[in-house]
Amino acid sequence: MDEIVNKVANSKLMVFDLEDYYPEENHVTSIDISQWLFGGFVLKESEFRDHLKNTDWSVYQDKYVALFCSEDAILPAWAFTLVTVHLVPYALKVVQGSKENAIIEWYQDVLNKLDYTDYFDKPLILKGCAKKQVPQEVYTIAIQKLIKVAKSVMFGEACSAVPLYKRK
Predict the structure, then answer these.
(1) One short Pfam family name for this protein (predicted)?
(2) pTM for the full model?
(3) pLDDT in tens, 41-65
C-alpha cells in the first residue's frame, strides 16, 4: 500500500491567518455613554461633566476603546468628543462605534505594521475558517496588503480554497 503524502505540507503554499493577530479580550473594550445620561436619554452638561470627571479612566490604559450610545438619545456633537478627551491619556485608540469597529481599527494598525517579506512571490492562502469572529472588513484590508507581495492568493483552507488573485 502506498504511503499517504501530505502535498499541502510539502508545497510552497503559505497560510496567512488573521486569527493570529486577533486582539486579546482585554485589549479592545467599549463604553456605552448612556450610563452618564439623565434617565439614559438626556444629556445634562454639568452632570455629564461630573460623571466624566469622577470616572477612573486608568482602566482603559493601552486599550482600543469603542464609544457608543445604546439609547436613542439626541446628543450634542461634542458628547463623544468630550469622552474622548478623557480617554486619550490612557487608551491606545478611541473609536466612535461598536466594539467590532474598534477591532477593525486594531487590525488596520496591526496589518499596516506587519513585515510581508516572507510572503514575497509565494502562493498564499488567506485562511477563511476562524474560531474567533474576525470581521469581514478585515479580509478586505488584508487582501490589499497581500496582493502587493504574493504570487497568488486563495481564500479558505488548502482542501477547498477559492482563487482570489494571481499575479500576471
Answers:
(1) DUF2480
(2) 0.87
(3) 899 999 999 999 999 999 999 999 9
